[in-house]
Amino acid sequence: MNKNVAVDRDLDPANMLKWYIECGVNETISNSEINWFEENNNIVINQQVNENTSIISKRSQKPAVQPPLTTNKEIIENAEKLAAASTTLDELKAAILSFDGCSLKKTASNTVFSDGNPKSDIMLIGEAPGAEEDRTGKPFVGEAGQLLDKMFAAVNMTRKDDFYVANVLPWRPPGNRKPTEAECNVCLPFLRRHIELFDPKMIILIGGTSASALLNVQTGITKLRGKWLEYSLGEQKIPIMPIFHPAYLLRQPHFKKQTWHDLLSIKEKIGRID
Ligand code: URA
């Protein structure tokens, strides 16, 4: 503290602490960021609060946030169990509907499972439903979805006949915020089973979130897009390509040129697979 500056009474730490107590503050700050939408993070919060036990937290006998009954690991294991027990796409959809381990479900109006031709060979995987998808219960029906359909129509492919589309998350993050890694991890067992049950000959990852979730990489979409990679499905190696998200192309239309090259590469690969 600069000794030449008189301590402002309002900024005196003891006064501030008194002020916080009068305001009802009963928790210390944690050492890392807290995602308040993520119920499971409560475990970490409480551990940190207990470790940092202060005058403030000693005031209350009980922590303000009650520890949840399950840990994140248990929630993921439950998702894996439910996913593995599903033997058809309909059963998987029912399993997701019955799953309460992701707090996004509470704020969403609908569970968004999939759209398109379930008998086609190509699976597109986006990030999460937006407002329109949440309202209708179908993926990619808003402005970005309409651009997605136009992009594929440019290489003579329609959702009705030629591809099937799902998302990493079946629930809309509030305000269309980017999903957290924890939210993606909780929902990934369902997506992996979705891929197994659909059994695609090719997977297209739409945008950076689905690319990093499924490929388990930190590399940005700008570097990943347009590259053919492989997704392991048992013994099979499925060709997989990340492309720019149409929502990004709506904001940055000059990247449509690269996407056109990616679409031509997809079309050419389909010709070789068939
Ligand atoms: N963006 C996505 O990633 N998925 C949708 O379903 C809609 C918008």
Summarize the entry for a quick read:
With 274 residues, the chain is an alpha/beta fold.
What does this 3D model show about the protein?
- There is one protein chain.
- The chain is globular and about 75 Å long.
- The chain is built from 13 helices and 6 strands.
- It has helices spanning 13-23, 42-51, 55-59, 72-85, 89-98, 104-107, 131-136, 143-153, 181-198, 208-215, 221-224, 246-251, 256-273; strands at 114-116, 122-126, 163-167, 202-206, 229-233, 236-243.
- It has 274 residues and is α/β, with parallel strands linked by helices.
- It has a 6-stranded mixed β-sheet, with helices on both faces.
- The chain binds uracil.
- Uracil binds next to α8.
Topology of this structure?
Blueprint: H1 13-23, H2 42-51, H3 55-59, H4 72-85, H5 89-98, H6 104-107, E1 114-116, E2 122-126, H7 131-136, H8 143-153, E3 163-167, H9 181-198, E4 202-206, H10 208-215, H11 221-224, E5 229-233, E6 236-243, H12 246-251, H13 256-273
Parallel strand pairs: 2-3, 2-4, 4-6
Antiparallel strand pairs: 1-3, 5-6
Helix pairs in contact: 4-5, 4-9
